[in-house]
């Protein structure tokens, strides 16, 4: 059932070129610059006039929500708020009939996310779901939704469900942009054509396994690890840190790289590994100066870089390459090496990768 892989997690990591293809099937028409999302079609008109979107989720799904915020604001120009479902439900948030709430959940059974949905529904909001498990409780509670179609995810650490959630959010952002006219057809053609090829690029990203194992060997006995990124690289850093802590029990934190100087920089010494999302995009130069700050304090720099990078290679201790892509698709690609890195570290430390201590696949208690 593990298809020849040692763990479900590894199998699920390697399934991503296929799961993302499945997620996009029948939904994108690159040549026409068109996105079709049958599940939310009846709300197409409503999307033209909404003033804001609230995303609620927990854990990894919340990280996908942060990527969604970046994409929806960038392309559809709708203000987005991302909330931990567990906090949102216990506040008295301001919600009206004009709001659209997007609930993200792999399992579709997370208690806090369900409670957040119920509260928002009572206040009259329209609720969309992004779920993986068909027919679960959350898809039944929502008004409409889009399934991720990643297939069953057995490993407690979410991998392919995360990239499928990000894919759905990318499709939603483009769909909303199409409804609202914030992207031209020619730009949509360009973006969708590139998105169509992302599964092949993920396949290439999966092939950096050798260098990733070397990095894992180097940092496997560390007590701490920092993950830093900017823009949509920030949620990727958060997700990298969560993966590492949950399966290897190494304390890890994700931070926006620019926040380093407001505190975490105090932690850096020759024993601190710092993983940077340092791909060539709008924040590339800024990330380079953050890398210099870490190197000046003798931190161990591991950088996720764009294929063919020269600048970061001069400074970093280890570079892991991913294929070049439009900034919109960076989270989908940069996440892959971080999943593999935490996997290999956990295996080297002898941890139970698929069933880490104290964790459950679906958290049905509040
Ligand atoms: O099923 P859900 O997406 O609602 O689950 C949310 C979190 O419990 C989940 O993402 C958790 O953080 C994972 N263990 C992360 O790998």
From TrEMBL:
GO molecular function, one term: glutamine-fructose-6-phosphate transaminase (isomerizing) activity
Enzyme class, UniProt record, top EC level: transferase
Active site: 361
Subcellular location: Cytoplasm
Domain of life where this protein originates: Bacteria
GO biological-process terms attached to the record: amino sugar biosynthetic process; carbohydrate metabolic process; fructose 6-phosphate metabolic process; protein N-linked glycosylation; UDP-N-acetylglucosamine metabolic process
Reaction equation(s) it catalyzes: D-fructose 6-phosphate + L-glutamine = D-glucosamine 6-phosphate + L-glutamate
Coiled-coil positions: none
Catalytic activity, EC: 2.6.1.16
A GO CC term assigned to this protein in UniProt: cytosol
Keywords of the record: Aminotransferase, Cytoplasm, Glutamine amidotransferase, Repeat, Transferase
Record-annotated SIS domain positions: 43-182, 215-356
Assembly and interaction partners: Homodimer.
Function: Catalyzes the first step in hexosamine metabolism, converting fructose-6P into glucosamine-6P using glutamine as a nitrogen source.
Protein name: Glutamine--fructose-6-phosphate aminotransferase [isomerizing]
Source organism of this protein record: Pedobacter changchengzhani
Native organism taxonomy: Bacteria, Pseudomonadati, Bacteroidota, Sphingobacteriia, Sphingobacteriales
GN (gene name): glmS
